[in-house]
Amino acid sequence: MKRYLMLAVLILALVPAGLHAKGNYSKAKKDAADAFAELDGKGPASPAPSASGAKTAFSDVDVETAVLKGTGYGSNEKNAKMDALAQLSSSIVAQIKGNASLSQEEKDGKYTESLKNDIVVNSSVFLKGVEYTQPKKAKEGFEVTAFMSSKAVINTITYLITTLPDDLEMLDPVKYDSTLTTVYLAFSLLYSVSEQAVPERKKYIDILTAVKKEIEMMASHGSIYFSAKTGTKGAVEINGKADQINKKIFLKPGSYTFTVKAEGFKNLKGSFALSKGDKKFVELILIPEKMGKKEVYLKVNSAVRIVDDIEKALLDFGIVPSNDENLTHSIVVSLKGTTITVDNYRKYQLEVDLHTFKNGVKYKITHYEHKPFFVNPQNEAAKIREETRNVSVEVVKKFFSTINLEEFFSE
Hints:
By secondary structure, the chain is an alpha+beta fold. 41% of the residues lie in helices and 27% in strands. It is globular.
């Protein structure tokens, strides 16, 4: 009798928990839909017309007053608009960098890279109310600026909430991932709007937080994306199972090892851990397998001696550093560090500029700003030296793994 009684109690304890979890999500979703519909001034939320499906109209609104914008270029007007939309999508992530801490950022610091990739891929589907300036002639084609007003942003958030599924329990990993991306996008958009435009912005952030937490509780898988430059042919083996690079891969929570095998490059090995709801993004730094030795003039401007570390990194790519300024190809690496003193600590900001030249003409460049870190009088010199070396080598490797070396060294 006791055994049956205990079993009955166990069943009663389990069933309400499941119903409670589902009920919390439904309530959180409804609260969010009602709140943003009211903020939008439309009553019950309804999908806004797609920018791609509506008749194109050029706004007379001053672009400078837009809360989000991106300028694109293309050989024709259509390509320029597509590039402008991609740049606007990227700016959404930039708006919340350093201002908001979402779960992916809390886990491994890779939130922005993963979300940026997802938003750019889905921007034409998700973003509503995007307006465009009249295309104008540029040096090589056309220039267009895409922009969104505060009203368009709120309208988009309202629309995004209406696209959330009613039931999360039966979602497959792909649809679950899309749902999570939708919520993160809503967060990003909300942070782009000023508190003057939305006086109770914190209240709406809390409302979205409640929805996000409910969705994350239902996660069964995580995802990882191995990114390589366009045109790279290869595959990634995760725990012995092969899959494509430049594709989102869904896996159950756990620890994994991987080997990237790409045509013309050395194998790359590593490991990672994945938790429920993770959205990891790995930018592959691939080193050419066979590369003829090319002598290049190298100049390094840095308060910390890092020239030896950079030379070693370049040698992996078949680039032989030289002091001969008359060589056809040259590389200039410049590092700048700035500090702000706070009590007994100093906040250090490191910036790296890498410029390449071919026959005296600038070829390609990159600029990188490292996340600020704190130092104190006891560890300042060692910490700055270590970070400067690590960051500069990483920037050099990433840069030369993404450009076309054969094109750079062609006569």
